[in-house]
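Everyone, study these two lines:
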Amino acid sequence: MEVIVYNSKGEDTGKKVTLPEAVFGIEPNQHAIYLDVKQYLANQRQGTHKAKERAENAHSTRKLKKQKGTGGARAGSAKSPVFVGGGTIFGPRPRDYSFKLNKKVKSLARQSAYAVKAKAEKISIIDSISLEAPRTKDYIQFLSDLNVTGKKTLLILPDVNTNVVLSSRNVQKTKVTTASQVNTYDLMNADQLLISEEALSTIQTLFDR
């Protein structure tokens, strides 16, 4: 698949690049994408939730009333879950939600995510982007020139560019990452992928290993 290369002002450079068939042309594996996104979201969970159960409640264990003759149901201590302020039955406990996923599955998931975006024609190739200083205004103009304002965008660079990262971090619905750090969730969550021409070769190299 050939894609037009644009400059940072959204102008057609007259060049075209061919997206690597081994990455962008495969048949997407939806289950691999599901597993990788599921793992990513699970890893974001702190797992620090906690509710006091019966044994941890600070109430007295004194029997509230006599067993018989009151006309009501039998009652033990105020720790009973049936009373307001009592312990919680099977309440949440701190736990680790993360789980293992094989490297080959994660790699297939990322390839599949790229392929999904390529088939949907949601990929734009940028020859390069460089900002002289961190300015949010400049990054907003960059998005406007590419006609992606208001869309969820993911800019993929070959290496970390501090000025670009700082310029984009206050802009909603946009994220900047590198070719080696991009994950399946970010790829699928974006409406439009903005990939620098140099990062494209890095992506191909990563999957050729």
In short: The mean pLDDT is 92. Residues 46-96 form one domain.
